[in-house]
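The data are quoted verbatim for completeness:
=====
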Amino acid sequence: MSEVIDIESEVTSGGSGSHNAHARASASKADQWVTCPASIAYVEKLIRQGKLPAKEDRSVYADEGTRAHDYAEAYLTAYIAGTKLPPVPQEYVDNDSVGLIMSYINGVIELKGEDDLLVEVEVPLFYSANESGTVDACVLTPYSLHVRDLKWGYGVVDSRFNRQSAIYAESMIKDINDDILAEKYPDYLTIPDSFPITIGIVQPRTAMDDTVWELTYGELKAFNLEALVAHRQILTNRVFFQASIKGCKWCRARNICKFRSMMLYGLLPSNLDIGALTEDEMLMIHEASSQIKAHLSDVTSYLNARAINEGHIPDGYMIAETKKNRKYPEEQEEMREYLVGKGLTIDMWKPREIKAQTHIKKLLTPKDRKVFDKFLVKPEGVPYLTVREDYKNAYDFAAVDSALFEGGDTSSDNTPSATLFDK
């Protein structure tokens, strides 16, 4: 049996909302701890050893996101209550973002219709009643549930197979039973697997169209089962390390993690104590970095060529295309005339700026956006081989549950178990 990790939770807190407060096994970092269940305790150990700061520094981008969430919450709350709407912050006037923040707000209002709208509602996470997260916006009807998540950054996030939003959706459903809405929605106590759900991530500042993930309650539970199993592994200290692109991207230990180096490069001895990379070990990796990069490029090129030219696509993989933003046509006169005819004066849009397409779209009706899109030129994407993001329904939950609580081993044979944590 693995050692029990006696660690106090490291909880980062700030102001209100999901963009500020985080649980130990937070939904926002689910890609990290679901893929690598040992990472939570590993990061906490490095903090105690002084290898990582106790709190992460907040970036100016995080502060921008907080202000956007706060304004959207204030506006939608006033709209629901029928009280005076808050004035638009000068920040959005100065940087031409009024249409962007209002596109999210108006989209939520349109989705609401005559149904119930919950804004910035804190819910216990479905896998842990002691931890919570905040749902930006949720529309409830007797026959469906719709979750919307505002992302104010420039990075493109796909709502499909998004762990954070999926966790919030299932947590929202389970929390309704304990909420004042339970009396109004008694059928939520026995929701069938066919119950329809939509999950949307709204990204006003990107040039990409927002995506909506349509699924059933049964499909949602199947997708979230991996998170539930990983969380139980964390609670019982039957954890393992596993490197991955999504999992390591936001992990605080990604730069100094020995296990990541072992699994990716095989450069380091396998009998390392669990801790941070030493300077000598990092220099060893640094010296080999040119060869590593060249080798990665060579292998990737080989696999891409076989898949694209010979049609050899291994199981679990697919051919995808890199996404490229649409461009303005070289001749812009016809487009200019169209936009001016729709009431957009020249000072309201600047066609040579990268973000201008997004600004323009937010000022047009859905019908006019489709016409505007026809003026744009979409460069062809580059095909490449990538892993399919299918549903992960392979778990036999009863067997996993039994293994976790009766001493069985649920970790993979080829991933090192975390059994050496010390204080």
Notes: The first strand starts at residue 116 and ends at 125. The chain is about 40% helix and 15% strand.
